[in-house]
Amino acid sequence: MKNQLFFREKRRSQNALPRVVCSALFVVLAGCENELPLHQTETITETPQNLAQASNNATLQSAFPPVVSSVVDLGVVARPGSVLVRDGGSTALVGDKILWLFGDTIFKPGFVAADGEKYRSNTAALASPESPLAVTEPLDANGTPYQAIPFTAAEKAYNDSTGKPDDRIALWPGGFVSETHDPDDYTALGHDGFTRKKSRNGLQFFLKVHVLPGTLNYQALGVGTARFTPGKTTAHRDRKLLFKADEPQFSRAFLHQGMVYLYGKLPAGSFLPYGVARAPLKKATQRSAYQFWNGSAWVSDIAQTAAVMYGIPGSVTVSYNAHLRTFIAIHSQAFSDKVVIRTAPAPEGPWSAATELFTGMASSSNNYAAQEHPELAKNNGQTIYVSYFNPQGFLHGEVRLVEVTFQ
Question: So what's the pLDDT on residue 51?
Answer without folding.
Answer: 34
